[in-house]
Amino acid sequence: MAGVNKSIYAALLANLMIAVTKFIAGAISHSAAMIAEGVHSVVDTINQLLLLLGLSLSKKKPDKYHPLGYGKELYFWSFVVSILIFGLGGGISVYQGITDILHPIELGNPTWSYVVLATSLVFEGTSLIIAAIEFNKLRDGQTWWNAIINSKDPSTFLVLFEDSAAVIGLSIVAICLYLSHRLNAPYLDGVASLLVGLILVVVSLILARESRSLLMGEGIKTNTKKRIREITEGDKAVLSLMHLMSIYQSPDEILVMMIVAFKPDLDTAEINDAIDRIREQIKAEFARIRFVIIQPDVFEDKVDPNVQAYI
């Protein structure tokens, strides 16, 4: 988690330092693309603050209203961030780009725009490198894309996506700014703004998809389910694991619920001992599984032990 916070603080500092200078440079050079980049940086700054808020709220202790804790706060605020990127970042940039393509504004002095772009690339590039290094520590041998898809902590890959979009956007703006002055084609400035907006829209949709999936309730992986079945059915008191349900409460907290058929000759005390054994073994092997609820049931031949229900 410390690495995640490091990435977020680095991105926050970078965006905060360059947002104002982008707006100033955009006003001086009459560059819609630079203004769009300024909006992008403001949105990114707000996003980092919301992520930090989500991380803070997700650590609140369980209470009578939320007995399983507040872990899903992080998923909620990550979804809010994806909406902001889509609406404020992508939407405004696309609108500004289309407007300036249809009604080009006379180009101003681009000197300050080049200075700000170069400075921004340094800060955003540094933030991206930090985010990439921290995320790389979490990949565990997976490809980058698979690590993103399998991650249950949106704050890790959200910063990575934002910084990548920022660096790509800055590069596009720099190229279009140069060509617009070189070719005396003011509409290219609007094209740059439009492209930046479309990049942000794509990024926001990817982030929204991942955050929504986690918010709705993703379960554990197939290999983890298989191992839990082995642990449960390997206990001497168990006949069959009839149903297994799981859900991520937060990136580091998983709730597992099982319906287990125990041998019919066991008394209540023996069943309770078996439940304690199974629970402790599962929690010992999987550090993220914090809650294990086991419901005893009667085994019926018509129940297929390979059929599981998931949340």
Structure description:
- There is one protein chain.
- The protein is built from 9 helices and 3 strands; from the N terminus they run ααααααααββαβ.
- The protein has 311 residues and is mainly α.
- The chain has 2 domains: 2-216, Alpha-lytic protease prodomain-like (Up-down Bundle); 222-297, Cation efflux protein, cytoplasmic domain (Alpha-Beta Plaits, 2-Layer Sandwich), CATH 3.30.70.1350.
- Mean pLDDT is 83; it is low at 307-311.
* CATH top level assignment of the largest domain: Mainly Alpha
- What would the CATH topology of the largest domain be? Alpha-lytic protease prodomain-like
Order of the strands making up the biggest sheet: 1-2-3
Strand tally is 3
Tally of individual helices:
9
According to CATH, the homologous superfamily of the largest domain is Cation efflux protein transmembrane domain
Count the domains: 2
Summarize the main sheet: 3 strands, mixed
Provide the succession of SSEs.
Answer: HHHHHHHHEEHE
Helical content band: 55-70%
Which stretches of 5+ consecutive residues score pLDDT under 50? 307-311
Q: What is the terminal separation in angstroms?
A: 26 Å
Gross geometry? elongated
Structural class of the secondary structure composition?
mainly alpha
Summarize model confidence as the mean pLDDT: 83
